[in-house]
Amino acid sequence: MTASDNSFARHRQLPDPSATLALRNIEHCAVAVPYLLGFVPSNSIVLIGMKADHVVGACVRIPIQPVSPSPMGFVRSLRSQGIQAVSLIVYGQFDPLVGSCLERIRDELMMASIDVLDVAGIHDGILISPGSEPLVVDEVGDEVRAWFVEQGWGYVSNRESLIACVTGEPTETARKLSGLLPVDPPVLISADRRAIEDEIVRYLTHQPARTVELPSTHTLACWLPALEDRRVREPVLYRLTKPLFTRESVPWRTCAADRLSLIVRHSPEHPASAPVAAVLAAWAWTVGNGALAQIASEVALARDPRNVLADVVGGAVGVGAHPDLWLNALKSSTLRRLRSHDRIAPPASGSRQSA
Question: Per the omega criterion (within 30 degrees of 0), is the bond before 208 cis?
């Protein structure tokens, strides 16, 4: 699986509203990028967006390719989020294609009145910045690295490693589940829906999160079809997200993503397993992990091209829509309404099909 051609960028917001990080030079930016994206990029231009006082507000990965969609929509999104300036880092060799991509990006940023602070390159772990001596990235920015460690952030070696956390060769559990999942979603009474909702939320939010155990095959055979029912799926997302309505930190931010990823990884390529991948995509977008959100939405749509939630999330991440769009959609409803016949109104930005 590769980056979607119609997805211009990957985007990650700082998930804890109380946590702010100031990146005051290009060395700090170079150290921060893998943490902000969730992986070490390659063959890409990475844009780090700054708000006032150099507080980081967004991180965007732009694949280097001969033909790509216009970045203007994404640049406008950055401006609407209070981004005042950016630093640009090229991952890979400088060549004419990189030069033309940089020129196009800088033109669009200038049209949006966003300043470019620095342009640098990283190749084989060496930071090359005009007017400065080459630096080994692993030997600079210890204070930035320590900040991310304190926040519990990490990253994998490349995007392919992130993909492997979600999809790959069928596992033994996936093979067993493929024979248990129904063709049509089951019809669940209210009490059964609520019991499954409670089980899923308890699994995703249980602390401590030092180990991640996969639920039994029997349990997954109940959960996956149940998530096809929006009266289960949307209350689960509502309960996971509710602390963010009042800008509180979410203690299960990482463990919920890890556990959803584990379920998706051990689920078969079956339409009944698309909703859990869509839930992962929505949760990853909510907490700012745009790369994981994009990958999970691609997995969900591969399993069921009609999955509206995955389509909405993938489109929103692709144009750089802020997760607040999703939060506001959730806040506009209540658990009682979602458990009955109401549904979350999908954010308008980014959807490629009607809900």
Answer: yes
**pLDDT of the residue at 352:** 47
Block means of pLDDT (10 residues each) for the chain, length 355 residues?
32 52 93 91 92 88 73 73 92 89 90 93 94 94 91 85 92 95 86 96 81 90 95 95 84 89 96 97 89 94 96 85 84 90 60 44
Question: Which tokens go with 87?
Answer: 């630093």
